[in-house]
Amino acid sequence: MKTPTEVTIDAPAKINLGLEILRKRDDGYHDIRTAMAMLELADTLTVFVDLTGQGAGMSDVSRGENLIVRALDAFQEAVPESPPLGWRIEKRIPMAAGLGGASSDAAAALIAANRIAGMPCSRTQLETLARELGSDISFFLGSPLAIASGRGDILDPLIPTPVEVLLVVPKINIPQKTGALYSLIGSADYTDGGQADVAREHFAAGQMPPGQILRNAFNRPLATIEPRVLELRQAMSDLGADSFGLSGAGPAFYVLSMRRDFEEVRKTIVERFGDWITMMPTRTRQLPLRVVDVNSRG
């Protein structure tokens, strides 16, 4: 049996189809409830046996800050007999945009490392490692559509619905973004989590969830830091984009359609906001994260 020496995986972006914050927990985290959908937009991560011990990847990111490195370190601590590993990545998902790129890359790293080591870890064991690394990493190990609750690590998988997606990403740089936005969340932003159940009903019927249930608790905090996002939201509403919302803690927004051509939306947004906005057309993913290439030795 051949042992893989190099595994390449597509690591997809995600969007949050609504995001509710229910409460702040005693441990300092917040309980959330959200529907999460993977997208066809993806990074491509390659993990390989690295006998030189030099590793590879983003040299400008410290080991402690890089989720790929942390994922590989965690795997090798759990499986000491696994070989030394390096990695390289082709980034396509905008960073720090609320699209889950870092978490998806970490999940891909765990899957690749497990494949190279001969599959010593079950999916449950990988999910345990994922939860220790970050709240939403375990989502990328499962169904491409799920309701997430708790810290985002309690998952209820759903059957995915094909939907066209236009990502609308403003150029907003917020240092320590997630922490900064959570610090602006108050009890008035808490809701009961019920909109995820409405979303579930629409998905079960093969329908796109309407805009009114795509509420995101981070809308107000983000607008507090960057008021221009209110103008962007109004522009999308004026264009008749009924199903649009903020993904994660932002700043990426998305517009959804079953079959719509986004050309009018793209043209108007460019005219009004210029290079402050990057737009990326994609669609929801129907299959989970997958290995796309394996190189082996006998």
The helix content is 25-40%
CATH third-level topology of the largest domain: Ribosomal Protein S5, domain 2
DSSP summary: helix tally: 8
**What is the global morphology?**
globular
Straight-line N-to-C gap: 7 Å
CATH architecture of the largest domain: 2-Layer Sandwich
- Largest sheet composition: 6 strands, antiparallel
Radius of gyration: 19 Å
The parts where pLDDT drops under 50 for at least 5 residues are 58-62
Number of domains: 2
As a percent range, the share of strand residues is 25-35%
Helix-and-strand structural type = alpha+beta
The multimeric state of the shown protein is single chain
| H/E topology pattern | EEHEHHEEEHHHHEEHEE
Average of pLDDT: 90
Reading off the top of the CATH hierarchy, the class of the largest domain is best stated as Alpha Beta
Number of strands: 10
